[in-house]
Amino acid sequence: MPDQLIFAMEVFLNGLMAGVLYALVALGFVLIYKASGIFNYAQGVMALFAAMTLVGIMNGQVPFAHLINATFGTHVYTFGWTVPAFLAIILTMGVMVLLAWAVQRFVMRHLVGQEPIILFMATIGLAYFLEGVADLMWGSEIKTLDVGLPQGINTWLDEVTFEIFGYGFFIDNLDIFASIIAALLVAALVAFSQYTKQGRAMRAVADDHQAALSVGISLNFIWIMVWSVAGFVALVAGIVWGTKSGVQFSLSLIALKALPVLMLGGFTSIPGAIVGGLIIGVGEKLFEFAVGPLVGGATENWFAYVLALIFLVFRPQGLFGEKIIERV
Amino acid sequence: MFYREAGDFKTSYRDDNQTFPIKFDRYRYYVVLAVAFGIIPFIINDYWANALLLPFLIYAIAAIGLNILVGYCGQVSLGTGGFMAVGAYACYKLMTAFPDVSMFIHVILAGGITAIVGVLFGLPSLRIKGFYLAVATLAAQFFLVWLFNRVPWFYNYSASGQINAPERDVFGIIITGPNAPAWATYLFCLIFLTACAIIARNLTRGTTGRTWMAIRDMDIAAEIIGVNPLRAKLSAFAVSSFFVGVSGALFFAIYLGAVEVGEAFGIQKSFLVLFMVIIGGLGSIFGSFAGAAFLVLLPVVLKVVGADMLGWPTDIVAHLQLVIVGGLIILFLILEPHGLAQLWRVAKEKLRLWPFPH
């Protein structure tokens, strides 16, 4: 087998793994969009916020330490304890639920019935707000996150592929774990929305707000729940990405990576987010591998968008999106 | 008392169609112009020009451009930063290739080139709508920035990858480079802003503007009553990109002087201009001015209050700024989705009845 083909296969596999990670972020978008018609730009910042809160709780940092010290002239930084990862994750989830309540109570409730574009802008404002709060709360320096996920080269795959091709593939353990987590997450979400009372209510709201209201479903409750679930997805994405590349500002930019995934898959479809993620992940890695060196590299910055753009021209609602029917 | 149309009789069609039909408005407009052109250039210094006035003038042009696209034609664009970069790099290439040609022509040509690029990226808008379009314009943003970063021809093969504005003059007065006097750079930008505002105002109240607004309000209905969506959407993209390109050229050549594309024209810039349009008011030329002024002033005020008066470290002030900007955007959308321009309109309505409301 020629070397190039083997390399391409390795790139393909790595692309699949990257795609799963994109899909993980895209899932959060789809959930909120389906249930409330809000395109939540803040999803990426929520992932950042969740990861920072997790690190902060684990290290026993004092929230807003910087601000407190600047205002009162004190020198407090940490409580002096560390919290085990499992407990910290649960506490962080609590914070995300609180955040969901606050978003619903102070922002979205006042914007019911506004045009979608206004809601979208509001979530951009929310993204800025959250980013500032996260930095004020936990400090803006780069932090490492370690909740015990395995990292480094997967030796088993390396050996197996070496046996077959005479060349060991480099696949990160973390990526494999992330894929498993993502698969579990999707399965859990599907089960939740299909088989539980709250999940069914959520789907009813997604289908038709007024009809859902008329059979006695509380919109307020459902929306808080949806934002909490999105917060949970953000937490998972934050843990995986934070472990991979450190908890820092660039984490919030993964939201921008998830957008072309959504466009490709369709805003309203969970399978679409997965398939779109895989296509984008594989596509951009292979493109960078094949064409990148010819044009100066770093094509990953834009390839996904251009791919999605070209795709949309032929199919404006994405792969799995609901058909757009327009009437006067 | 002063602000009313009573007694202001229009005796010709020309009077009837003027931009400011109320006498008080008209005089206010003349006074603003007189102050901007006749007084400020004599009292301006470097600090005021660089910290406030130049960014305000340049962002106001960009905001007017984006407002045409988003506020009047309803096509949400997140590619403003990319289009500003096109204007800046076009201006740079023209400046270095034709050193003897006037800067006025360079800036206008840079706007024209941006308009062509804008139409190109506007083509998908005929098929893609709403959010899908907003995300699709991000393709322009990322692709253009990457292009200017990676293709050495655009930055004349300079070692740093930056572009630097060479010294150029208009009628013998230096207006680019570090030796340019503050009043000259200010006047140069002001002339462009005034021209852009007048053009935009008149375009939006004529046939072109009405077709844009018809497309914005409901594109299918507009199509049925005979608005050509191809022409309306692409003309909006062209005009909007022209203004944005002009502002990008000025931003680079007059204001910054040296530019690294990812830093100066990144996605943050797109959002900044979009915020100006939202806070100012969608579909209002005055709103573009107000939004630009607000978001240029805010960081300066915060810095003065936070860092200089309260003595906080600068990084806290920077983070607080994010919180405040984000919070203000949400607050504006909740309290007044139509922005500062709507407050202005309400104030004018009140003023009309003052001092005898009923």
Note down, in words, how this protein is organized:
The complex is a heterodimer of chains A (328) and B (358). With 328 residues, chain A is mostly helical. Chain A has one domain: ABC transporter involved in vitamin B12 uptake, BtuC (Orthogonal Bundle), CATH 1.10.3470. The radius of gyration of chain A is 21 Å and the shape is globular. Chain B has 358 residues and is an all-alpha fold. Chain B has a domain of 222 residues. Chain B is built from 15 helices and 4 strands. The model of chain B has no long low-confidence stretch (mean pLDDT 88). Chains A and B meet through helix 3, helix 5, helix 11 and helix 14 of A and helix 6, helix 9, helix 12 and helix 14 of B.
The number of distinct structural domains of chain A comes to: 1
**What's the CATH architecture name of chain A?**
Orthogonal Bundle
Helix-strand topology string of chain A: HHHHHHHHHHHHHH
Please give the share of residues in helix of chain B.
Answer: over 70%
Number of strands of chain B: 4
CATH class of chain A: Mainly Alpha
Total helical elements of chain A: 14
Please give the largest β-sheet of chain B: 2 strands, antiparallel
- Which chains share the greatest interface? A-B, 54 and 48 residues
Q: What would the principal axes of the Cα set say about the shape of chain A?
A: globular
Distance between the termini of chain B: 13 Å
> What's the Cα radius of gyration of chain B?
21 Å
**What is the average of the pLDDT values of chain A?**
82
Unreliable segments of 5+ consecutive residues of chain B = none
Question: Which structural class fits the helix and strand makeup of chain A?
Answer: mainly alpha
In short:
Chain A has 328 residues and is an all-alpha fold. Chain A has helices at 3-36, 43-59, 65-72, 85-107, 116-138, 155-165, 173-195, 197-207, 209-214, 219-245, 254-265, 270-290, 292-295, 300-314.
